[in-house]
Design brief:
mainly alpha; single chain
Length: 64
């Protein structure tokens, strides 16, 4: 599967991290800028794809 499709899957899956992100955002907004929530989950997705180019296919196959 292509990188773009893997990244699209990753964006959806990594939204699980948004609660943590929103806490970070509250804490950091007092002191400066935070990345958008989309950029936050995309960064996680990119890291997973870097580890394994088929990370999200394997995750899907495992039923997760």
């Amino acid at each position: 599967m292509s990188y773009k499709l893997q990244l699209a899957k990753g964006r959806k899956v990594e939204k699980e991290h948004l609660l943590f992100y929103h806490q970070i955002q509250k804490d950091k907004m007092k002191n400066g800028k935070c990345p958008s929530d989309t950029k936050f989950v995309e960064g996680i997705a990119k890291a997973h794809i870097k580890e394994d180019k088929n990370y999200y296919d394997k995750l899907n196959k495992a039923g997760l």
